[in-house]
Write a structure and sequence with these properties.
The chain is of the alpha+beta class. Helix content is 62%, strand content 13%. The site of zinc ion has 8 residues, from loops.
């Protein structure tokens, strides 16, 4: 086994790398959230517009901005409206789901960040418990020992 000093500096290095990785991932997710929020707003606006569209020209605009597959049929504005709304609602549904997932991933990452420096040797307890058995007069007695964690020096955290 290597010296505690080597082990603690190794542990510190590991934590530093983990925190770096966490920060990079978090920055990417933050960017993604911004993009998704803009997209959701855009779709919500389009949906309102589609619902209010009273002419083919307005509906065409919605379809173009939403990059929808729906084709306008001049005599079927009601049908086109329905198809456009349906497609926007579907896109909105998946965009909102992705937003929710990304927010959950950010929460996970924040939890990891918070727990990154918890001592992995004692799981943050700062001490180790062990049971030893001693023989005395032909009897075996258990002795419960609590020892300070050598890696974190009893702090429960790698500092
Ligand atoms: Zn410890």
């Amino acid at each position: 086994m290597s010296k505690p000093v080597d082990r603690i500096s190794e542990a510190r290095k590991r934590i530093k790398w983990e925190l770096q990785e966490i920060a990079e991932r978090k920055a990417k997710l933050d960017d993604k959230i911004v993009g998704l929020r803009v997209y959701v707003d855009h779709l919500e606006g389009l949906l309102t517009k589609a619902k209010q569209a009273s002419s083919n020209a307005l509906l065409k605009d919605v379809i173009r901005l939403g990059e929808l597959r729906t084709r306008i049929k001049p005599s079927y504005i009601k049908l086109s409206k329905y198809l456009a709304e349906k497609e926007i609602e579907e896109k909105l549904g998946s965009a909102r789901a992705e937003l929710k997932e990304t927010l959950e991933e950010i929460q996970d990452i924040e939890r990891r960040k918070r727990d990154a420096n918890i001592c992995f040797e004692c799981q943050g307890q700062g001490q180790k418990r062990e049971t030893r058995y001693v023989r005395d007069d032909g009897m075996v007695h258990p002795i419960f020992l609590v020892t300070k964690c050598l890696l974190c020096g009893g702090k429960g955290k790698i500092e």
